[in-house]
Every structure is written in C-alpha cells, then in structure tokens.
Amino acid sequence: MASCSNLLKKEKETTPLYPYVENNRVGFLDEQLNKKIPPQFAFRANKNWPYSFSEGLAAISINGKAGYISRDGSIAIEPAFEEAHNFSNGLALVRSGGLYGYINKRGKYEIEPRFADAGSFHSELARVKEQSGRWGFIDSDGDYAIKPQFLGALDFQGGLAAVQTTAHREWGYIDSLGNMAIEAQYPRAKSFSEGLAAVQLEFQQWGYIDTMGRVFIESQFLEAGPFSEGKAAVAMPKGENNLEQARYGYINRRGRYIVEPRFDKAYSFSDSVGRIMVNGKFGYINENGKLIADPIFDEAWDFKGGYGLVKIGTKYAYINKQGIFALEPLS
User: In sequence order, what DSSP letters do the residues of 81-124 get, joined into one string?
Assistant: First the structure.
C-alpha cells in the first residue's frame, strides 16, 4: 500500500501545472485547465517564461524579485534574487548582485554567487563563466571539474558538451572528464540531441554529426536545429535567385524531408506538435506537416501535456491539438 501511495504522490507531483496570465498577474491551472493557484505573481516576459515547475518548485516574481513557490502556491523560497531558474539535480541557478550562484531547495547557497554567467546543471556538471571571460564546468560542490579555458561552452547533453577553443576559435566536443572527444574543427556547433548534433561543415552550411564525430547528414542547410521526436527543423534557400532568405521545414534522421520547407521559421517538435512562423505570426503543425492551428498568434510556445500557450494581442490563451481554444484568451 505504501509503495502504491508513494507512486500516486510522485505522479501527482509530476502532473503539469500550466501558467496563465490574468490582469498581468500569473497563476497556474491544473491538467484540466481549472484554476489551481490564483493569479498573484508578477508577469515577466523573460527567458524563464512560461513559468514551470521543476522538482516540485517554480520560479516566480514578486515586487521585482524572483523566488520560488510550491505546487500549492505557497512561497517556498522568499523572492530575493535578480534571476531565478528551474531546479536541476537539487540546485537552482540564481543571480544576485550581478553574479550567478546556486541555491538548494531551502533557499540557501550551496555555491555562492561568483560567476559572470552560468547554466543549470546537466549530467551533474554546470557550465560557468569566470569574470576573465573563460568558461569551465563545476560539480555540485562548486569545484572545477573542467577548468576555465574555453571561449564558449554549451550544456552537457548525451555525455558531451560543445566548447569553443582558443585555437582558431573553433568548436569541438568534450566528455565529462574534459577530454576532447571530437576535435575542435567547426566554425559553429550546437548541443547533441537524440545522438546527433548540428555543426557547420563545408561552405559554412549545416549538417549533423554523431557522437563519434562522423558526418551523419551531409552539410546542405542554411540553418539546422536539434532533433526532437525524430525530427529536426532545418532551413534551405528560398530559391536559386534568393540564397540568403530561408524557408524552414523538417527532416528525419536520414536527412530526408518529411515536411517540405515552406515556413519563415520552424521550431522543435514537442508533444507531437511543431511550432512554425509565417509572416511574423505563429501557428502549429502535426507530424504530417498539416496545420492544426493557422499562423494567427503574436507569440506561441511549445505544446506540453496536450496544450499550447499562445498570445493574441495582449491576451494569453491555451489551444488543444485540434487548434481549438481550451482556455479562452485572458488579458
């Protein structure tokens, strides 16, 4: 009985809660989009929006400061930070006094703010930037696992992290011990996702490599995004006489188009739905490339748990996978 009860409790704790905006205040909805936490937190359209729960807590803003709430809406960590990010590996990245550090779930610093820039923990390591401008990686004790030496660094994904070396300013990939697993040779590179990473190859065109550094999909794209749900958004020139302007579509892992390039912008699939842009407006497509919501939204975010958050003018709403409003627009 106890194990069953714990399982139900864990499932309840991981059930999505959806942020909504009413009168420029943020609250949260349950999985049926019923109001669960009244709108009482400040709305800040920053990189942490839409607010989301991670490891039982969500970063919110009150009176210009960021803190954390529990799933019942109560304040878990008093707002005291300039920035607050989602918890990962029991630690959350925060900014205070212009510097980044990491707190635990009691709101106490495990790693004091001392970094000019930083990322959340991934694979038990976090990328951090010293005030000298060099990037390295720390462990959960705040000690350097990989000393600061890189001009740029991305989060660890799939056991590898993209880093920009001082030699020719090229990008390669290191393992968690700091060994160069894939030699620095790319003008630009992105993180691994589903075993593949987008890199610039010949003629500054994008292709994909595998975790051994072998070319998996030949360079041919103006732009290339990460693989998600077996698909990646890529861009090709609009036409032979217009090589700079891009049209976006989606390819599979063999590099073949499953959705032909016809959008001004396209984003990774999430919850079997792809977010696209046409003429400055956002819409959504299904896995066959068919529009499920016409591009009419001023802003839109990835689907999660069957719903997508959209913005029309100054109002926010949720739509379902049929493109129908599941929550009517609220200002």
Answer: ESEEEEEETTEEEEEETTEEEEE-TTS-EEEEEEESEE---BTT
